[in-house]
Amino acid sequence: MLRALLFRAIILIALPVALLRPFTGLLIYLCLSFGRVGDFVWSDYSFDYLILVALASIIGYLLFEMNQSPIRLKGMVPMLLLWFWLALTSVVALEPSLAYPKLSEYSHGFVMALLTASLVNSEKRVRDVLYVLAISLGVLGLKGAIDAVLSGFSSTLVGPGGMMAEANEYALALNMGIPILWFLAKDQSDRRVRIAFWIMAAGSVCVVVGTRSRSGLLGLLTVGLIMIPFSKRKFLLVGGLALAAAGLFMFGPQGALNRYRTITTATESDSSAIGRLQAWSAAIKMTKAHPIFGVGPRNFMLAFPDYSDDTPRVTHNAILNMLSETGIPGCFFFLAMIFATVGRMFSLWLRARRNPDTEHLATYCQIVMCTLIVYLVPNMFINRQDFDLMYQLVAIGAALAVVTQRKFASQRAVETATESTDDTVPLWQRARA
C-alpha cells in the first residue's frame, strides 16, 4: 500500500508539471508508458494514470506551446491516412461494436505520436526523448534479467503489463530497446553512462532469452545483424556475436533452448506454428473476400469460422492482420509509414555522418531507422501492429527530419556568408554567392 501511495503522489505532482511544461509531461508519459511503473503497484490500487498525464500534457501544449511549436504534419501524413482508414473500416466493419474500442486504442497512440512530433522541435529534445525511452526500457530489462538470474531461468519471463504483458510482446519491446541503448552508448562521452547503457542492453538480451520467444530470438538476430554495418570494428563485432551465439546454445537456459530447437520442425509438430499457418491462410482468404475495407479492426476472430474450419486464433502476423482487418489500403498506409521513415532516416544519416557538427543527429537517425527494422522482423510472427512504441519512433523520425534539415540549412547559410566575405574569392564569385 505504501508503494501505491507513493505512486499516486508522483502522479499528483506530475499532472501540474505536465500542464505547465508539456514537454516534461511528454517525457513523464513516455517513462510511465514504456517503463510500466504503474504495473509494479498492486492492481487493487491501480488507475488509468496514463490518460491523466496525457490529457494534462495535451492541454498544456494547446495553451502554452502550440504557438511556438505548431502541430507538425510533415512526415506524419501516412500515419494520418492510416488513422482515417482505420476509422472508415471501423464504421463498415462486420461488427462495429468490436472495432470502435480498437479504434480508440489506435487513436490514443496516434494523438500522443502527434504530440511528440509537435513538441520535439530541437536536437536537445530529440536526445531527451531517446534517453527517456532507452532508460525506461533498459531499467525494465535490467530488473527482468536480475529476476531471471536469481530464479535460474526456471520459468518463462512475461512482461509487467499493458502491451508487454505477454512473452512475445515483452521480447519485442526489449529488442527495440537494445539498439537505442547501444547507439546512445556509442554516442556518449561519459564512460560511466556508456557502461550503464551496455549493462542495460545486456540485461535486455537476457530477458529476451528468458521469454523463450522464438520471434524474440529472431528479433535478437536482427539486432545483431543490423549493428554490423554501423560498427567501426566490424570483424571484432562479428566475432563477439558469434561467440555470444555459441555461448547461448552451449550454456543457455534449457527451457529456452528446447523452445528454439523446435523452429526447424515447428510446421510439422508444433501446435503453435501449425495454428499460425492456419490463421495466415484464413487471413489471406479474408483479404481476397474483402480487399478494400477488410473485415474491420478486431473482427478477425469473429470472421475466422467463415474462412477456416480450424480453431479460431489471432493472425500472428502484423501485415496479414492489417490486410485482413483493414484491407489493402490500410496495410499500404501502415507499411508506407514505416518504410518512408526508415528511408528518410537513412538518407539523412548519409548526409549527417560526414560533418562533425551533425554526428549526434546522425546517431539519432541510426536509432530510429534500426529500431523500426527490429520492430518489423518479429512482427512477421506476432501481430503488434498497434504497438505504440513504433508510432512514437515514427513521430520522432518526423521531428528529427525537420531538426536535421534545419541544421543543414543553417550550415549552408554560414558557408555562404563565409564565402561572400572572403577577400580571396574573386568579386564575380562573391556576387554569384
What do these coordinates show?
- With 433 residues, the chain is mostly helical.
- It has two domains: 68 residues; 352 residues, no CATH class.
- Helix content is 73%, strand content 0%.
- The radius of gyration is 23 Å and the shape is globular.
Key traits:
mainly alpha, 433 residues, 2 domains
- How much of the sequence lies in strands comes to under 5%
What portion of residues is helical?
A: over 70%
Mean pLDDT: 90
| Shape annotation | globular
- What's the quaternary structure here? single chain
The arrangement of helices and strands along the chain is HHHHHHHHHHHHHHHHHH
Count of DSSP helices?
18
Number of strands: 0
Ranges where pLDDT stays below 50 over 5 or more residues in a row are none
Query: How many domains make up the coordinates?
Result: 2
The chain-level structural class is mainly alpha
The biggest sheet, with number of strands, parallel, antiparallel or mixed sense and barrel status, is: none
Computed over alpha carbons, the radius of gyration is 23 Å
